[in-house]
Amino acid sequence: MNKVTVLVVDDDVDFVKANQTALENAGFKVLTAYSGTEGMQMARENHVDVAILDVIMETADRGFTLAREMRNEEKTKSIPLVMLTSVNEVNQKAGFLFTFSDKDRDDSWLPIDKFLDKPVKPKELVDVVNRLMGEGSKASENFSS
Known about the structure:
The chain has helices at 13-25, 36-45, 62-72, 87-93, 122-133; strands at residues 5-9, 29-33, 50-53, 81-85, 114-117. It contains five helices and five strands, in the order βαβαβαβαβα.
């Protein structure tokens, strides 16, 4: 059985490395990208089962536009997308009352499958990927946080 491939797209190198380690320890194959542009290229050029996207990268909303780009291309439109970001914390510190959550997901504006706030515990991230992959993925059976 082939390993589930997870694409992690975030401009924070330490965050990417930490989550890459957690996901690999759980049995996933992990591809990494450090910008929305690089993430889209990786998704086009590789088989990706799940993508984990940050929001604030090259621009304050790059993750949102990346999610929409992925949904608009034939090769990437059915990849489950996890938005894992600190955008809510950034907005709160700036005095904005609006926050994002799973309730904001929709097909055009925020076409993702799951929204998570940073920081996230490694086991929670692994569990989310497994849920998105369905019962066919059991990578976290031997994973402990």
